[in-house]
């Protein structure tokens, strides 16, 4: 099944487009509506072409680089170096043209009963398309049809309101939920995928409106209630559950599995060694070629202790060495980074974190598979795009933001996620009576009777979904852009010298000054060049201290429209603050 669907994608009609006529051209190969779409197979083949253009690549999933994952280089979003592009910049409409072409013609030769499931797929992808646009640009033009080349009014229309766009997305998803197949599949979009997307979109929109008060966007609660309803419908259907087949190690096994675990994964990006369709996650994490990604210290601090207490409540938590700080923590930490006792899948012996491959020292292992996949671009484990844990997190957060969350709701959602990791339950009354000051400092806008629980749900979301590229959207919707301007940090070292990182009695790292020593099997890091410590000869590793991180609250929650499009359509307006 996995290979057959990838082959379908390779055979499907793929399309491209350009500039002024981006919405009025027929798809590639001059597909004629009079002779196409005569069979269900035709509809299936054409709708398969939507997947490749819409869904994120493997790199688009694992290559997270905001404030969860730190690299030697920084994205332009973190440095204020984004500029108004001449063209492109995400303002592409090719996918939409082909979706609308399909929707206008899929009923030409077939009954409503036969065509409606595929129209549902098309509307799912139109909703996915517009969700990406509204997150990126805010207001955009809504096009629900293929445009005629001479329709200057439509081609030159203004941006429609955010509310019109989001409500149109919801209408498309409601149609998709009603008409798409309800058969489980982790490789094709189904009714369940549409419910998961509705849950995601509604939570984004509800919280965006709640926290971006300066925009005066109404009806935040309407969308939060939609998020609750969509999540609960999916939860009540009983089609999915959290994978627990590997006991306390289930979280890590879920991501290293070659074939996505359909018990939890609702939709995945598929890969295949047999079909020579690979991605690069192993090589990304075990070499220095891709920025030496590592978990950031603030996130490491956010993991609870194994008994459910807060690590940041411990005396001198900020001055603990690696061996001290990773002891007795939430098991998901040990399944996300290398910690003492870690052995590669297919490896022969435990290995320590490697600063040569991880700039913070907190070396990633999530998604890392067998050593046989270590060559460049040879990983074949599937990448989850929607999974059930996100739906549970969406449900809990939306109810908490509405102020209607109960302990029973937590037990149906957050506490299932914690139970998978063998962590204690989150107790509503306790969380609300004792809000975590460490998290509260990061999210000062969170207030009210549910403050403590909302903070805990944000903790769970960040930990559970790390390296799955949710963090940027979460920062945008929570209006928390200033988080990315902090100094990024790594492990703490009380002094320079030799350190055992995995507790096996052998030194793994030697931070030195002056002449490079000779020490086989030890990572040699020269102070001031190969490693920087916050206090000179002690403190946390600091990364990119010479690069100023900038986030402009007045403009950086949106991307700019490209110059070319503003010149072609004088009725378009630039987003505020972009020149």
Q: Please, could you describe this protein's structure?
A:
The termini are far apart. The radius of gyration is 25 Å and the shape is globular. The longest helix has 26 residues, at 112-137. By secondary structure, the chain is mostly helical. Helix content is 39%, strand content 6%. Mean pLDDT is 94; it is low at 4-26.
Q: What labels describe this entry?
A:
mainly alpha; 23 helices; two-stranded antiparallel ribbon; 579 residues
Write the layout of secondary structure elements.
Layout: H1 2-11, H2 40-54, H3 58-62, E1 69-70, H4 76-79, H5 94-105, H6 112-137, H7 152-155, H8 162-179, H9 191-211, H10 220-237, H11 250-256, E2 265-269, H12 281-286, E3 294-295, H13 297-302, H14 322-325, H15 331-334, E4 383-387, H16 388-402, H17 407-412, H18 414-420, H19 428-433, H20 437-442, H21 451-464, H22 471-477, E5 489-493, E6 497-499, E7 509-512, E8 523-526, E9 539-542, H23 563-568
Parallel strand pairs: 7-8
Antiparallel strand pairs: 1-3, 2-4, 5-9, 6-7
Q: How big is the Rg?
A: 25 Å
The overall average pLDDT, rounded, is 94
The residue ranges in which pLDDT falls below 50 over 5 or more consecutive positions are 4-26
State the total count of DSSP E strands. 9
What's the helix count? 23
Instruction: Profile the largest sheet.
Output: 3 strands, mixed
The helical percent reads 25-40%
The general outline is: globular
Strand order across the largest sheet: 6-7-8
Strand content: 5-15%
Q: How far apart are the first and last residues' alpha carbons, in Å?
A: 49 Å
Which class best fits the helix and strand makeup?
A: mainly alpha
């Amino acid at each position: 099944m996995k290979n057959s669907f990838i082959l379908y994608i390779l055979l499907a009609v793929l399309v491209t487009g350009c500039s002024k006529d981006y919405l009025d051209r027929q798809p590639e190969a001059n597909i004629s509506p009079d002779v196409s779409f005569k069979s269900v197979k035709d509809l299936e083949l054409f709708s398969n072409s939507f997947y490749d253009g819409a869904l994120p690549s493997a790199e688009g999933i694992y290559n997270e680089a905001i404030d969860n994952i730190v690299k030697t280089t920084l994205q332009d979003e973190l440095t204020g170096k984004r500029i108004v592009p001449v063209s492109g910049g995400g303002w592409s409409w090719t996918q939409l043209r082909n979706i609308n072409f399909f929707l206008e013609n899929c009923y030409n030769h077939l009954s409503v009963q036969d065509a409606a499931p595929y129209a549902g797929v098309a509307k799912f992808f139109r909703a996915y398309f517009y969700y990406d646009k509204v997150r990126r640009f805010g207001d955009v033009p809504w096009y629900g049809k293929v445009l005629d080349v001479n329709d200057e009014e439509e081609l030159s229309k203004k941006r429609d309101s955010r509310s019109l766009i989001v409500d149109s997305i919801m209408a498309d998803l409601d149609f998709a939920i009603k008409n798409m197949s309800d058969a489980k599949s982790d490789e094709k979009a189904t009714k369940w995928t549409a419910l998961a997307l509705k849950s995601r979109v509604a939570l984004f929109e509800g919280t965006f409106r709640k926290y971006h008060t300066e925009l005066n966007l109404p009806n935040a609660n309407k969308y939060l209630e939609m998020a609750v309803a969509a999540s609960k419908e999916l939860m009540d259907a009983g089609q999915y559950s959290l994978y627990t087949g590997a006991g306390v190690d289930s979280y890590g096994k879920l991501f290293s599995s070659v074939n996505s675990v359909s018990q939890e994964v609702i939709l995945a990006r598929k890969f295949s060694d047999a079909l020579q369709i690979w991605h690069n996650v192993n090589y990304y994490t075990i070499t220095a070629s891709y920025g030496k990604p590592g978990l950031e210290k603030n996130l490491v601090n956010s993991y609870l202790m194994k008994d459910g207490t807060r690590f940041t409540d411990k005396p001198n938590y900020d001055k603990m060495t690696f061996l001290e700080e990773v002891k007795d923590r939430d098991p998901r930490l040990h399944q996300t980074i290398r910690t003492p006792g870690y052995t590669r899948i297919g490896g022969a012996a435990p290995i320590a974190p490697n600063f040569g491959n991880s700039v913070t020292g907190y070396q990633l292992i999530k998604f890392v598979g067998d050593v046989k996949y270590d060559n460049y671009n040879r990983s074949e484990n599937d990448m989850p795009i929607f999974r059930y844990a996100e739906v549970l997190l969406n449900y809990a957060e939306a109810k908490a933001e509405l102020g209607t969350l109960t302990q029973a709701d937590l037990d149906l959602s957050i506490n299932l996620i914690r139970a998978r990791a063998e962590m204690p339950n989150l107790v509503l009354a306790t969380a609300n009576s004792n809000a975590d000051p460490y998290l509260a400092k990061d999210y000062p806008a969170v207030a009210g009777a549910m403050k403590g629980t909302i903070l805990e749900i944000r903790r769970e979301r960040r930990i559970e979904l790390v390296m799955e590229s949710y963090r940027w959207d979460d920062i945008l919707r929570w209006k928390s852009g200033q988080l990315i301007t902090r100094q990024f940090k790594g492990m703490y070292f009380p002094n320079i010298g030799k350190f055992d990182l995995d507790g096996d009695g052998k030194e793994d790292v030697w931070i030195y000054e002056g002449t490079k020593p000779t020490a086989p099997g030890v990572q040699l890091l020269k102070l001031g060049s190969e490693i920087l410590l916050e206090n000179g000869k002690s403190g946390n590793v600091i990364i990119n201290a010479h690069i100023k991180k900038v986030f402009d609250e007045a403009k950086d929650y949106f991307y700019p429209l490209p110059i070319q499009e503003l010149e072609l359509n004088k009725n378009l307006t630039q987003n505020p603050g972009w020149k």
